[in-house]
Design a protein that fits this description.
Layout: H1 13-16, E1 35-42, E2 49-57, E3 59-63, E4 69-72, H2 96-107, H3 109-114, H4 120-131, H5 135-150, H6 164-185, H7 193-208, H8 212-220, H9 229-243
Antiparallel strand pairs: 1-2, 3-4
Helix pairs in contact: 4-5, 5-6, 6-7, 7-8, 7-9, 8-9
Length: 255
């Protein structure tokens, strides 16, 4: 069964990091305001029609150490959520077999309870974990859920305006992302691109959680001599921020 609308989210950490730890990340499409428009969707579970925002264009100025892009861009990309049962359409297409498995999960008391509290990317992780997806994919979903809680962000914006509930959710999502990231790391080849990406991101999440000694320890255990220039730059910045007791999000490079 097809429900393609062009809102697919590539959920792996690799897809989040096309410019990972480079000094500058720019969208080749040129500058311009992000264009977001409402579109009508049909829920694949229940068949109701509802409206959701769809991002049509944007300009990425840079990328944070935790891989969140920023600029004239909506980040993360909105996930359509059915207005009735709360099902999050986390990909373009669902097979009939997948929908049969998802229906009782969405109808469950657990899902209906958490949809009242949590962000759509957390709900997507909940559904994907029930469907048996990888730890790397779950880490990417939880990471995006943390971005949702933050709201808009630029290199000079801090998080003091978040409510207590939002702060609690932010800590929870980052913690879950780190837990899944560590599980994924255990299965990645040491020294591979995926391993470096996950290892540095894990250190950054430790820092964002205020676990500065943990961040420093992770970085000290990495083979810095084998890292690329961009990876070493990111490691140095994370190390310096952790040494200063700074748990605020930070841009890559010199932003």
């Amino acid at each position: 069964m097809s429900h393609k609308r062009g809102f697919a989210v590539t959920s792996s950490l690799r897809s989040l990091a096309l410019g990972l730890f480079s000094l500058t990340v720019l969208d080749a499409g040129g500058a311009g305001a992000s264009i977001v428009r409402p579109e009508t969707f049909k829920c694949p579970i229940g068949g109701e029609e509802f409206q959701s925002l769809v991002v049509r264009s944007g300009y990425q100025q840079g990328q944070r150490l935790d891989l969140r892009p920023y600029g004239m861009i909506v980040s993360p990309i909105p996930l359509p959520q059915c207005s009735g049962n709360g099902f999050v359409m986390y990909k373009d297409e669902f097979s009939d077999e997948e929908l049969e498995k998802l229906k009782p999960i969405v109808a469950s008391k657990d899902y209906q309870a958490i949809r009242k509290i949590h962000r759509t990317y957390y709900l997507a992780a909940f559904l994907e974990e029930k469907m048996g997806t990888s730890d790397s994919t779950l880490a990417a979903y939880y990471l995006r859920a943390s971005w949702q809680v933050e709201g808009g962000w630029g290199p000079r914006r801090t998080l003091e305006k978040l409510t207590r509930q939002e702060r609690n959710l932010l800590v929870r999502y980052r913690t879950l992302a780190l837990e899944k990231l560590d599980r994924a790391l255990a299965h990645e080849t040491r020294g591979s691109e995926d391993w470096w990406r996950s290892a540095i991101l894990a250190a950054e999440l430790e820092r964002l959680l205020g676990r500065f000694a943990g961040a420093q320890k992770r970085l000290s255990e990495l083979p810095a001599a084998e890292a690329s220039e961009g990876q070493r730059s990111a490691m140095t910045k994370i190390r310096n921020l952790a040494a200063a007791g700074n748990a605020q999000p930070a841009a890559q490079g010199s932003d």
